[in-house]
Amino acid sequence: MSTEVRVPTLGESVTEATVATWFKNPGDRVEVDEMLCELETDKVTVEVPSPAAGTMGEIVAAEGETVGVDALLATISEGGEAAAPAPAAKPAEAAASSDTGEAIDVMVPTLGESVTEATVSTWFKQVGDTVAQDEMLCELETDKVSVEVPAPAAGTITEILAKEGDTVEASAKLAIMTSGSGAVATKPAAAPAAAPAAAATGKDVEDAPAAKKLMAEKGISADQVTGSGRDGRIMKEDVLKAVTAPAAAAAPAAAPRAPVHADDAAREERVKMTRLRQTIAKRLKDSQNTAAMLTTYNEVDMTEVMALRNEYKDLFLKKHGVKLGFMSFFTKACVHALKEIPEVNAEIDGTDVVYKNFVHMGIAAGTPTGLVVPVIRDADAMSFADIEKAIAEKGARARDGKLSMAEMQGGTFTISNGGVYGSLMSSPILNPPQSGILGMHKIQDRPMAIKGQVVIRPMMYLALSYDHRIVDGKGAVTFLVRVKEALEDPRRLLMDL
């Protein structure tokens, strides 16, 4: 039985499209909803999924052809009987599949909103390994979080399609398993590597027709555009980005590295930055380039907070099942100050100032792979116990690399505690698009003049970095003074003073 693959509805007023890329060839095995080809209209790029499982038959519309709505693109022979030469060339795989069960695809899981690709960082299993259902197969790294990929079923790894270091798109196929416990893969080691090698060397990819037309119209060459399509193919939107990008974006490139002595070079180790580290670096530099960032400092006497904590920590732990730390005091103090100085909790959107009538508190946390900022939503409506529980739970998930995208988005203000590492003084960098970040530091006994006498007090330096475009110096200083007052006399928090 044959199934037709036709051009889907392209949208209002769009009557035709150009076939940009075919991901499958005649004879290839395809699954339901697996991407067959990509069409490009004058407005959007449209992916065409397979309407049925089977084998690719004839491709009617080749790459570069213009097709109308509902036009025939290709045919699919349903079932496995129409297998072309490709499956026949893999007798060992076919035998393993027929003996032990059906082939199961291991796909890239949902990566989260706005995340379109990931890097395969580690494979825990090899071809031929037997795995149990939900056993971890590999780990992916996005520009924000690490994602573990569990086995969708019990069986044997028969083929690994994406090797360590490969960049894969959302919903891409990572590996193939054979269900059952006795399957043994006998694929030659060279086979999986052959395809990526060909793709890497075959830089002769044809750019999308609409992209070439637009480049000709705008008078720019292909080497001025970064392609986002398959194998680096330049798409129409890539050309538009290159045309509309501000001139400043292309100006300052990183200075070339100074020459290194041969003896020193032999003792160096060069390691590629992780995607998370690259994103951290980019965001922090963007923050410096965008915001008019300034930092104001103060110091707080921690005597009263420490006394209150010591007095109630055992009772607090017994009742709430979580330790009473300093972060809940600082969170409460910041919420208190943000109510009085709302611009520190606001953000700039073009020529508008967006004031937030809520506080989603970002709590910066160090992890083995880099700094992440999980967000405690509606912290202004939470109790001390709720805040401590949320911080403990988010911190544990951050260290395990299990934070979701949603848990790190939407923050309105951030607290960063460098004191846990021994920092005495620092200037934190804003977390865009936020306008303020509080830096906590080490508690250190210092001699202080109190009522005409020198006494030893546990002191902490506080630093507030803020965006001077929206927050004036008076507001920033007042905010920090209110935080100081609330911590030096915690009863003010209860009285809302």
Automatic annotation (TrEMBL):
GO CC annotations, alphabetized: cytosol; oxoglutarate dehydrogenase complex
Occurrences of domain Lipoyl-binding (ranges): 2-77, 103-178
Catalytic reaction list: N(6)-[(R)-dihydrolipoyl]-L-lysyl-[protein] + succinyl-CoA = N(6)-[(R)-S(8)-succinyldihydrolipoyl]-L-lysyl-[protein] + CoA
UniProt pathway annotation: Amino-acid degradation; L-lysine degradation via saccharopine pathway; glutaryl-CoA from L-lysine: step 6/6
InterPro entries: 2-oxoacid_dehydrogenase (IPR050537), 2-oxoacid_DH_actylTfrase (IPR001078), Biotin_lipoyl (IPR000089), CAT-like_dom_sf (IPR023213), E3-bd_dom_sf (IPR036625), PSBD (IPR004167), Single_hybrid_motif (IPR011053), SucB (IPR006255)
Cofactor annotation: (R)-lipoate
EC number: 2.3.1.61
Keyword terms, alphabetized: Acyltransferase, Lipoyl, Transferase, Tricarboxylic acid cycle
Family per record: Belongs to the 2-oxoacid dehydrogenase family.
Complex and partners: Forms a 24-polypeptide structural core with octahedral symmetry. Part of the 2-oxoglutarate dehydrogenase (OGDH) complex composed of E1 (2-oxoglutarate dehydrogenase), E2 (dihydrolipoamide succinyltransferase) and E3 (dihydrolipoamide dehydrogenase); the complex contains multiple copies of the three enzymatic components (E1, E2 and E3).
Identification of the protein by name: Dihydrolipoyllysine-residue succinyltransferase component of 2-oxoglutarate dehydrogenase complex
Organism: Actibacterium lipolyticum
